[in-house]
Amino acid sequence: MKLTPALLSLCCLFVLSSCGLFKPADPIGRNPQQPTRVARGSEDPNSWIRSDITTHAQELIGIPYKYGGNRPNEGFDCSGLVVYLYQGAGLDIARTSRDQAKQGKVINASEARPGDLVFYKKPGGSVFHVSVVVLSQPGELWVIHATSSRGVMREDILASSYWKPKMYQIRNVLR
Fold it and tell me: pTM of the predicted model, to two decimals?
């Protein structure tokens, strides 16, 4: 079959005009017509930040512990994980758990929201550990933290015989 210039032009016009009919799939599986994040509790102006912190924290589960570490490729210690998550959300926070425990406002466990920080200390001692709240519901307080024995992990600290007695305070540092 011989294509005439008019027929060839018509075919090219059809192909080029149809390019805008189909949108490519989003490479990470989002539907571009819908928001990527849903802000729950619209009374909290920090709900987007809380969502970013906790979503990113979930992605880091399994990274090994490293004393002084604050990057995924080198490992994390507890406060280094918090610094990394908060900096990723555009926020500055102190480097050590002891100094982080001086920031923000102390809140009750019933007020804890994703992104809040839980601090731990031994009786008569000073703060030695920090974790990030990812889920709070009656009887459960799920956190993500970097532990020396298991690296970055998710855990219900109210069900932990090790961590629960050492809970010192919960702080909202996003205010």
Answer: 0.75
